[in-house]
Specification:
Elements: H1 6-19, H2 21-34, H3 36-68, H4 70-83, H5 85-118, H6 127-136, E1 151-152, E2 167-168, H7 172-183
Antiparallel strand pairs: 1-2
Helix pairs in contact: 5-6
Bound molecules: zinc ion.
């Protein structure tokens, strides 16, 4: 039987691979250890050609895993959160040191503006004005701690404006204490 069909050839090759599995594995191992660059280049080429496909496969597997292991995934996330607490805090602290004045000024101005809008107060504070306040008065006006806070000297309820002229640096506890005094009728103007 001189001619073999493609199927017959494939079947024969498969039988050969099956019968010589160890030998082929050893030959492949020897080749790979003798030609590391060629192997690395081949791997790189393969990954480059199949990158998108591999990524899609990875995403699909990951999605499937998350859906079928909800509890484990949640637990792993919680553990990661706990184990990396210090690292996350360090990152947050560094970010805060680098961006805090600006971020805090933006937040404080936004809060003041939301409150002003709610009470029908027409003025809007800019973050720049809050930063200017803090650089002029870097500590709490009342207790002297180096804390940044924003207080309206005369509250909106008493007709105070939402402007640079009517704001002071007051830390949150001092701000609360001031509000309480005002509520009790002790209307000392500053702090
Ligand atoms: Zn204070």
């Amino acid at each position: 039987m001189p001619y073999k069909t493609r199927e017959e050839k494939n079947a024969q090759a498969a039988r050969y691979r099956e019968a010589n599995r160890e030998l082929l594995r050893e030959r492949s191992r020897l080749y790979r250890s003798a030609h590391p660059e060629a192997v690395a280049a081949g791997n790189a080429r393969w990954y480059a050609e199949h990158a998108e496909e591999q990524r899609a496969k990875g995403r699909a597997q990951s999605r499937e895993y998350r859906l079928s292991h909800r509890t484990e995934v949640r637990e792993t996330g919680r553990r990661w959160y706990e184990e990396n607490k210090e690292r996350r805090l360090a990152v947050a602290r560094r970010w805060h040191e680098e961006h805090a004045p600006r971020a805090a000024a933006l937040g404080a101005a936004r809060n003041a503006n939301v409150k002003a809008a709610r009470l029908g107060q027409p003025d809007r504070l800019a973050a720049d004005e809050v930063e200017a306040l803090w650089s002029a008065q870097p500590t709490c006006q009342s207790c002297g701690r180096p804390v940044h806070g924003l207080d309206h000297i005369v509250g909106f309820e008493r007709g105070g404006s939402n402007t640079r002229a009517n704001i002071q640096n007051l830390c949150p506890p001092c701000n609360t204490a001031k509000s309480n005094r005002e509520r009790r009728g002790e209307t000392r103007k500053v702090a």
